[in-house]
Amino acid sequence: MKVKWFFRLSLLLGFFSIQHPTGIFAQEVSRIEPPFWWTGMAESELQLLVYGKDIGKTRVSLSYPGVELKEVVMVENPNYLFINLNIGSQASPGIMQLVFQGSRKRPLVISYELKARTEGSAQRGGFDNADVIYLLMPDRFANGNPANDNMPGMLEKANRGNPDGRHGGDLAGIVSHFDYLKKLGVTTLWLNPVLENNMPAYSYHGYAITDFYKVDPRFGTNEDYADLIRKAQDKGLKIVKDVVFNHFGTNHWWMNDLPSADWINQWPEFTRSNYRGGTLTDPYASESDKKLMLRGWFDRTMADFNQDNPFVSNYLIQNSIWWVEYAGLDGIRVDTYPYSGKSFMRRWKQRINKEYPNFSVVGEVWLNTTPQVAYWMGNAANADGFNSELKHLFDFPLKYAIRDAFNESNGWSSGVSRLYESLSLDFLYANPMNIVVFADNHDADRIFTALRDDIRKFRMAMAFLLTVRGIPQIYYGTEIAMTGWEHSGHGFIREDFPGGWDGDESSVKDRKSLKENQREALEFMQMLLNWRKNKKVIHNGKTTHYVPENGVYVYFRHDDNESVMVVINNNEESRTFTTERFAENLTGYQTGTDVLHRTYFDQLRTISIPAMSARIIELKR
Ligand code: CA
Hints:
This protein is about 25% helix and about 25% strand. The model is unreliable at about 1-25 (pLDDT under 50). β22 and β23 form a beta hairpin. The strands form seven sheets. It has an eight-stranded parallel beta sheet with strand order 18-17-16-13-10-9-20-19. Strands 21-22-23-28-25-26 form a six-stranded antiparallel beta sheet. The protein has a four-stranded antiparallel beta sheet with strand order 1-3-6-5, with helices on one face. The longest helix is centred in the middle third of the chain and has 18 residues, at about 310-325. The radius of gyration is 27 Å and the shape is elongated. The protein is an alpha/beta fold and about 625 residues long. The structure holds calcium ion. Calcium ion (CA) binds next to loops.
């Protein structure tokens, strides 16, 4: 951020400057946030946070056509002011002069820019069912610029030998993989947080933000980030930003000089959240448990925002809009969604909707059962009337079902019945098509490991993930069967992507250098992802499934034009079965082709399927 000082130079001031080289002004401004704004936004109100020594003791004035200075609010700490502006529809882009009059004769004058909003910004789209989201951790994906691995002023230095340290990955490394990702067949990239995390340790994951308006210099600059997004969009890739509203890094500059004590949730001593998101929907939950959930800290190094403070909530809302507008985002993923509280998250979403009615937001509501997750989906039929207005959620219950389905023997509720039963609860979702489905992410066991390094289970899981209703999300490295247990430490499920570093022994860009099962997984994923890309019936078709029998699960994705039959055989033996009981989906169809095995079925009366495998059969009339 650049704060420019405009001194009203006059001979007289020059004279005083010479006479009083220091202390001409009793006040100073070191921060204004947001650092700039736009004309033509749907919401005309803007609240500036101004930080500087004794700035709260000044009188503020502003004269700019179309902009009204509505209110200047002092808070506990005299080093802060909050300035409420109304930017009318007739305001033109330009530089406003904010005048801070203190006890000295000469005021402090600070320029503040109103940029022209990019044409079409409000109509931006987002991701939808035709997309597949690829989650990657910027520090661990690829090091495109070794020169930024260590940066002046940044506390933690790169150490690739430390699983919990910074490894040097950056934005340039991501850009250098766009062609790989396009070829793989994913359409949307979700980057774990990229904002500054100037923490002494564990700073690589990005969830302890120390500057909400600055990309971490070890990843690149704000301009690099906006540039990455433009380049991605030019290639037909969308970018989703990971945002964090529950907490921020304790090395944030606020922590030395809070605007007010209630900026964060304060406790007599460090008090951890109980992480029980379910308390917010539990009719019997105690107030103390709910308080601990919402106001307990996520970790010692992560101060907990008090979103009930209206200056905090405005700050966070404007911060999101600033990044969408500045960088040109396609979507947002919200970390720890319930932890920031129902009313704040709803208000945040309403403001996003007001500026960008077609924009995509997916919330992390990490709860294990479908009713708990469904409560947070917009337009849910909740008994208490709560409507989050949030369109997309992650399907955590189905994630657990995928893991268990292929590791268990098949029974009434076990094995492949897990998938059937999880989907049967979709009546609870306001719209199950909007759920984001996944098998692993940056907080979970690598799916290949969770499936006991069995490539057959992996293929079944991925065939399911990429044909089931919803929007699939895969985790970087899943496509090459990367391994790691979460309980070994998070560093082990976030290992460096092969080939992202100079001198790596293997690389996704040189398939011969990969291990056989990695190559096999990659070829399978690439084929399946590219097949899905143009398969409208998989994007938007209806689902009909059948009670699993003998460890075989059969479902259809179908619309008026076409139908795909998916068969999953979760047995160590092959199966052959007759298809009478699927008549309501098979009537009118005569033949089919299994896209996974390139197998042609010249009849559909009996179907054979090898042990521990899936078939995805495109039906022909
Ligand atoms: Ca680097």
